[in-house]
Structure formats: C-alpha cells, structure tokens
C-alpha cells in the first residue's frame, strides 16, 4: 500500500455514522433478513433495534438503549462482547495476514488450531479418537462436510450400499441441501422437499411430550419425573438394526436438539443409540454446533454422555461469536479411506477454509475455555441459572423448564395439566420476546419455547435481570 493511497483512505474512512432513521430506511430498502417474516419487519409502526456496539453481556443500540444479550447473539457468543484477549488475538493476526487460500497451502493459525481442537475434543477414556480437522464456514457446512466424508469413504471402502442416514424427528442441521436432508425441519424446509435425498426418522426423545411418558405434569424438568421404559431409545435402536448394512450414519445433536425447541434428551440416549449404530458397522455423526465449547457444561456434550462420535461438527461458539468458522473432526480411519490414487481425494472445500483471522480468535477462545477461572465462572453461572429458573414455575402457563449447562428453555402452554399448546398462529413466544425487548432483554423463541443462553461473563445481577425481564414479559402476554 503506497503512502499516498493510505492517506487518501484515512480521509474517507470510516464514514460518518448514520442516524437511526437512515439505518432503518436503508435496511428496509435493500436488506433481506434470515428467519424473519418480511411483513412485520416492513411495518412502519415497528421499530427494529439497530445494534451499534457491545460490551460483556450487553448490546448497545444506535438510539442509546442498552440490552442484555440473552441468547448470546444467536447462540454464538461465549465470553461476552469485546473480550480483551479475543480482541488482541484478532488484531495480532491482522498485522500479519487476513486471509489466504488453504488449497495446497497451509499456515500457522490453522495447524495450531487443529492441534488444539484435537486435544480439546478427545476424551482420555472414551473412543474412538478424533485426529483430523477439516475447516469450513458455519454449522451447516460442517455437517455437510461430515456427511460427504462418510458417504464417499464408504464408497471407496467397498461398501457403496451404505447410503442411509437416521436422525430424530425435528432434527435441524442447517440449510445446505445435505444438511437439510439430514434434518428436514418442516418449518424451515418444506419448500425444498423435492430436492432432498430420503433419510430415515425416529421419534425425538422429548420427555415432556413423549406419548410413552405415563407421568402427569409436575413442576420440574420432565426428564426427572418421567415414567417410561426408554421407548425412544428402543425405537431408535430398532430402526438402526433394521437399516443394517445399508446404514451410513446415525446423526444426532447430543443432549440438546436446538432448533427443534431445545429438546433435552434423557441421560443415556446418545450412548445407547451410538452403540447400536456401531454394532451394524455404521458411523456416528454428532452435530455439536450448538452444544460444543462447554455450552452444556463439558467441552462436548458427548463427554457428558460417555460416548465419542466418528465425525464431529463444530461451529457457533468456535470463535466465541467473533467470526464465521466451523470445523469437522474425523477419525484417522475415515481419513485413511481417502488415501491412494488422486481420484480418492476429498474434492470439497470453501474459499474461506481455515481463514487465519477466524483460526487465531478460535485459538484464543479455546485457551480461555481451558482456564480454571473460566471453568469456575461457568459453573457458577449454570448454578445461578438453575436457581433463578425456578421462578418461572410460578406462572400457570409454564409447562416445562429444562436446562443443560448454560442453555435454559421455558415452554409455555395453554393448559399446564394437559400440556395443550397455544395455536401457532398466535405467536405467543414471539410476542413475549417482544415484550422482553422492551424491558431490556434480547432473546429469540423457538415457537412457544423461550430460550435464555447468557454469555459466560454474565454476572449474577445481570442474570437476575435477564430472568426477571423474561418472567415479566410472560406475565404481560399471559396475565
């Protein structure tokens, strides 16, 4: 960069900040938002929040209002906004290079991150061991990568008939074609069904609404008072055995099915079903895009279930919410299936694979996650969240309150004794979160399941404010 070019750039950049009204005008004129109905957004009476800055657990809007980040910026932010160590890692890498191709090239941030990820993800007792890391951009591409690894690996290993995939109902693995096929969420994907390949489904292990659960509703997490014979796992095992040598992989979001409504699985489900898949010679693919990076209290949710996958998808919290980066971890056995003739290569990738900025901040994130003081802070946050969540049982329209680590789900119902839902068209969950926003809390529901997922830096006072704001919002919508 020439000095003259740099001086000219400094005179014109950064541009003057826009006023709130101009931001909204330009947004409505040109921007298309994800998972956002357009008609309400375009309503002149609706005033969207424009985020200007963040600090810790707080988001600051253009109009000067402050909001608590109650869903960790769509489940990505781990340590809070503008963490000094994450900022420093990013700025240090900017002084070297922002991006270079990873096709036939390598660089230090990527190899260091791969090494650290392998150490972070593997458990000293459980097998198999993950040894290889393929970098991509987000959760969907991480799952897509794992799917293609497994399918091509079997084709090159003399088992081309293994093309079946099984996953629970309501599973959501992203919005690329392969990920949609594995998930097939009716809400998100019904328009694309003609393009998706067939996969098998088993009932979701959702204790609160399980038809086999003989217990009456109680004021507790349904997993803890369920009366059943673990039929959800038995049915999954039956379907896995039925697929037999046609099964390529059992695909699961271990412990928590996020977009399905924060369905939290009974203990032992992941281990039981993964064991069944391995008995028929199939692989196990875990989607830990949400649950990885200590969200459920252990480095991986798999660790809490005493099981390891053959392929693991990570994203969201990998860079602690700083930059798009994903990783698909695989065993050496799977990697070995791509060795030999050049045509056996894994012809799959992305322009921004192993972006050095993302890799550098992810390294700093993993360092933070493994510090004793971070672990102590997380455990205290999870304990306080459990205590404060008991407040929600005071409201008669709260049917279930469930928690895994730093993930809290509050399911509202029309009738607690029958578990009857509100009509979907009433959008009660969305209305409650709109009221919570007026009280200074940003979060987003999944239907009528309200979600709190605070950053790990959240103080107890801030956590009390989050839970109180959500509770008062419920009372306002359901007096």
**Largest sheet, order of strands side by side?**
4-12-11-10-7-5-6
CATH class of the largest domain: Alpha Beta
> What is the β-strand count?
16
Number of domains: 2
**Percent helix:** 25-40%
Averaged pLDDT, please?
96
Class computed from helices, strands and strand pairing: alpha/beta
* Low-pLDDT windows of residues: none
Would you give the CATH topology of the largest domain?
Aspartate Aminotransferase, domain 2
Q: Main β-sheet: number of strands, strand sense, barrel status?
A: 7 strands, mixed
Tell me the strand percentage band. 15-25%
Number of helices: 17
What is the molecular shape? globular
Please, what is the CATH homologous superfamily of the largest domain? Answer: Type I PLP-dependent aspartate aminotransferase-like (Major domain)
Distance between the termini: 62 Å
Instruction: Please give the radius of gyration in angstroms.
Output: 23 Å
Task: Please state the second-level CATH architecture of the largest domain.
Answer: 3-Layer(aba) Sandwich
């Amino acid at each position: 960069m020439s000095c003259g070019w740099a001086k000219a750039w400094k005179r014109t950049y950064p541009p003057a900040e826009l006023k709130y009204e101009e931001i909204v005008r330009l947004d409505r004129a040109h921007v298309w938002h994800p998972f956002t109905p357009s008609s309400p957004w375009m309503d002149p009476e609706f005033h969207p929040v424009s985020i200007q800055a963040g600090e810790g657990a707080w988001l600051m809007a253009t109009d000067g209002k402050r909001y608590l980040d109650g869903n960790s910026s769509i489940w990505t932010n781990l340590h809070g906004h503008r963490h000094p160590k994450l900022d420093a890692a990013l700025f240090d890498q900017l002084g070297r290079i922002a991006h270079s191709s990873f096709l036939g090239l390598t660089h230090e941030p990527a190899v260091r991150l791969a090494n650290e990820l392998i150490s972070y993800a593997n458990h000293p007792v459980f097998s198999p061991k993950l040894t290889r890391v393929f970098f991509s951009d987000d959760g969907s591409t991480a799952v897509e990568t794992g799917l293609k690894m497994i399918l091509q690996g079997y084709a090159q290993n003399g088992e081309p008939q293994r093309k079946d995939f099984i996953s629970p109902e309501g599973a959501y693995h992203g919005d690329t074609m392969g990920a949609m096929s594995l998930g097939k969420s009716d809400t998100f994907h019904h328009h694309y069904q003609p393009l998706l390949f067939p996969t098998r489904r088993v009932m979701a292990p959702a204790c609160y609404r399980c038809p086999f659960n003989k217990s009456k509703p109680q004021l507790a997490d349904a997993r803890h008072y369920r009366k059943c014979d673990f039929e959800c796992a038995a049915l999954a095992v039956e379907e896995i055995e039925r697929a037999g040598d046609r099964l390529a992989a059992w695909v699961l979001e271990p412990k928590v099915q996020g977009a399905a409504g924060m369905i939290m699985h009974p203990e032992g489900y992941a281990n039981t079903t993964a064991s069944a898949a391995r008995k028929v010679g199939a692989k196990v693919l875990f989607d830990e895009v949400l649950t990885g990076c200590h969200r459920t209290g252990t480095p991986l949710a798999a660790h809490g279930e005493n099981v390891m996958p053959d392929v693991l998808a990570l994203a969201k919290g990998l860079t602690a919410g700083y930059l798009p980066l994903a990783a698909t971890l695989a065993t050496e056995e799977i990697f070995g299936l791509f060795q030999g003739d050049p045509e056996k290569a894994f012809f799959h990738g992305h322009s921004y694979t192993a972006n050095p900025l993302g890799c550098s901040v992810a390294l700093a994130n993993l360092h933070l996650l493994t510090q004793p003081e971070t672990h102590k802070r997380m455990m205290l946050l999870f304990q306080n969240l459990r205590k404060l969540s008991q407040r929600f049982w005071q409201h008669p329209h709260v049917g279930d309150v469930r928690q895994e680590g730093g993930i809290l789900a509050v399911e509202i119902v029309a009738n607690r004794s029958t578990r009857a839902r509100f009509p979907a068209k009433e959008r009660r969950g969305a209305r409650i979160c709109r009221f919570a926003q007026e009280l200074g809390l940003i979060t987003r529901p999944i239907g009528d399941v309200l979600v709190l997922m605070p950053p790990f830096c959240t103080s107890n006072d801030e956590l009390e404010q989050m839970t109180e704001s959500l509770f008062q919002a419920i009372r306002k919508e359901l007096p």
